[in-house]
Amino acid sequence: MTQPSSPLPTSYPLPRAFPPGIRWSAATAAFQIEGARNEDGRGRSIWDDFVDTPGLVKDAGTAEPGPDSYHRYLEDVALAQGLGLDRYRFGISWVRVLPEGTGTPNQAGLDYYSRLIDALLQAGVTPFPTRTTGTYRYHSKQLAGGSTATLRIAFATTPRSSPRTSGTEYTTGTRSTSQQ
Asked: How far lies 150's CA from each of 33, 101, 153, 164, in Å?
């Protein structure tokens, strides 16, 4: 079978220079890149339960080890710097920071994100952490009765011990600057 001819060109010439103000960024999701699903006190998320259920994932993939950014974050930061990225948005895994969904934060999880943020800053890449709502504990969803509104309350009342960078604290998916 022959492919129909495309009305679009097969290559696109890149401009010699991009206009001022263009920012080169990258974004990732915690579950897809971190790996280390059973390390340093990380709890189980709804995605762990999903990928571990036989028949739900076509190739039985589990995201373990995945790109293994948990162990290879310095290589990831070097790649970002080498690509000339000036910003990196990454998800903070709820179950790595709060393994039980509530209660005392997991210091090993906080330390991982602090090391990542420090490495990004040292490389000249602005970190944009976001709380990954897709990696909350299944138990938290059950406690909330499956209610999205109740889960929002649980997120909003979480202790503010998220990693901090340059006087900026990132919590509950929003950014609040302590340097006014």
From this structure: 28, 13, 5, 26
Q: DSSP characters for 24-82?
A: -EEE--HHHH---TTSTT----HHHHHHTSTTSSTT----SSTT-HHHHHHHHHHHHHH
Averaged pLDDT for residues 133-147: 54
Q: How far is CA 10 from the centre of its chain?
A: 34
Kind of pairing between the strands at 164-165 and 168-171: antiparallel
In angstroms, what CA-CA distances link 31 with 36, 67, 123, 135?
A: 10, 10, 24, 7
Token digits of residue 19: 């206009």
Confidence (pTM): 0.68
